[in-house]
């Protein structure tokens, strides 16, 4: 595996680990937020409904008043009010505000697994003959809001991580480019091209490497030139020795051959 691939893989693992940790922390925050919102909504609802039936003057028509109290919760994001008769029949029930962008069922089950909160109103004696009013929390709207926030957060994280990976890849690629230049120059030296030189590096940390390589290449080129001169001198000396040896042989052997030719058999 190349250095570039290894570094990119390492950065990817770190970012994925950060994403997992962030998701776990976000999950805990969502659970706490939903629990707090439901408890606060139920407390406010009980207080508001209790104030609505606390006035004795409203007890002239208890059934109508209780229906109006229940109807006041229609359109609420977190609470559902139900008026039940003493035999358990539902006399009136408010309708929750439906979320515009509901969360998926799996996400709702994941973050809203706890049973809904419930509370029965402590009705004055004049209203108890009509029935009971119960408030029940419903987390669908809060979960939908959390789902929307989570999607936005994940989108931001994915875009951020993609930008980081792209920047890391581009930086590593640029940082390794001078090493590719050095490798190419070394191949040239290995093939006998001692005129190879490395141009100024974009990173000052690599300048000692460039100076060292260029100095080595210059010395190799000088030694190669000296070797060529020495080789030429050796060839010249060999030619001179051959010529001198040929002259010596000619001077020594020629008279002897001449006498052999003159002497009759």
UniProtKB/TrEMBL annotation:
The chain crosses the membrane at residues 152-172. This is Histidine kinase. The lineage of its organism: Bacteria, Pseudomonadati, Pseudomonadota, Alphaproteobacteria, Hyphomicrobiales. InterPro entries: HAMP_dom. Keywords: Kinase, Membrane, Transferase, Transmembrane, Transmembrane helix. One of its GO terms (cellular component) is membrane. It is an enzyme of class 2 (transferase). It comes from the Bacteria. PROSITE patterns: HAMP (PS50885). Its EC number is 2.7.13.3. One of its GO terms (molecular function) is protein histidine kinase activity. Residues 173-225 form the HAMP domain. GO terms for biological process: signal transduction. The keyword Kinase applies. The keyword tRNA-binding does not apply.
């Amino acid at each position: 595996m190349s250095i570039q691939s290894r570094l990119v893989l390492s950065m990817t693992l770190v970012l994925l680990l950060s994403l997992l940790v962030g998701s776990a922390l976000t999950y805990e925050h969502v659970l706490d937020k939903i629990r707090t919102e439901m408890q606060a909504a139920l407390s406010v609802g009980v207080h508001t409904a209790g104030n609505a039936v606390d006035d004795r003057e409203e007890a002239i028509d208890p059934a109508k008043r209780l229906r109006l109290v229940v109807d006041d919760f229609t359109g609420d994001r977190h609470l559902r009010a139900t008026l039940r008769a003493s035999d358990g029949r539902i006399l009136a029930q408010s309708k929750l505000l439906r979320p515009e962008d509901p969360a998926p069922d799996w996400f709702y089950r994941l973050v809203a697994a706890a049973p809904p909160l419930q509370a029965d109103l402590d009705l004055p004696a004049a209203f108890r003959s009509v029935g009971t009013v119960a408030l029940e929390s419903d987390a669908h709207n809060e979960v939908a809001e959390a789902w929307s926030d989570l999607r936005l957060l994940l989108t931001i994280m994915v875009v951020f991580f993609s930008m980081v990976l792209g920047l890391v890849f581009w930086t590593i690629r640029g940082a390794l480019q001078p090493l590719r230049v050095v490798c190419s120059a070394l191949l040239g030296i290995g093939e006998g091209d001692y005129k190879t030189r490395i141009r100024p590096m974009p990173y000052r940390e690599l300048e000692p490497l460039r100076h060292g390589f260029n100095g080595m290449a210059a010395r190799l080129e000088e030694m190669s030139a000296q070797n060529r001169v020495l080789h030429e001198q050796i060839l010249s000396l060999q030619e001179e020795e051959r010529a001198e040896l040929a002259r010596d042989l000619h001077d020594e052997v020629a008279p002897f051959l001449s006498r052999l030719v003159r002497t009759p058999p």
